[in-house]
Amino acid sequence: MFTIEHDFDATIITLVDEGAPSPEALRDDVIITAFEDCVTLRQFDPRREDDVVITLSLSQLRELAAALDLPEGSYRLNARTRRP
Question: Cα–Cα distance between 36 and 82 in angstroms, integer?
Fold first, then answer.
């Protein structure tokens, strides 16, 4: 399950782990916030008792999206077509 919210300066997507039958398999929500110039991924880490935040540039996000559909290897996206 996921939710989408549009704020003034960002779009916020929350991924909810409805997970496996055992409670320990469930993970905390992942909150993805898309700003004009970057995207952040945030998830609570119970071991640290703090949020872990990863920030991706828009270029890194495009590369991640492309990587999800490609086989193993090393790639560079073409600036015009955004394809490897």
Answer: 19
> Which residues is 41 bridged to in the sheet?
32, 54
Q: Give the model confidence (pLDDT) of 6-45 as tens digits.
A: 999 999 999 888 877 666 667 889 999 999 999 999 999 9
User: How many C-beta atoms surround the C-beta of residue 33 within 10 A?
Assistant: 19
Query: pLDDT value at position 19?
Result: 74
Segment holding 66, helix H or strand E:
helix 58-67
Exposure class string for 60-76: b at 16+ Cβ within 10 A, else e: eeebeeeeeeeeeeeee
Give the dihedral of Cα atoms 70, 73, 79, 81; nearest 10 deg.
-30
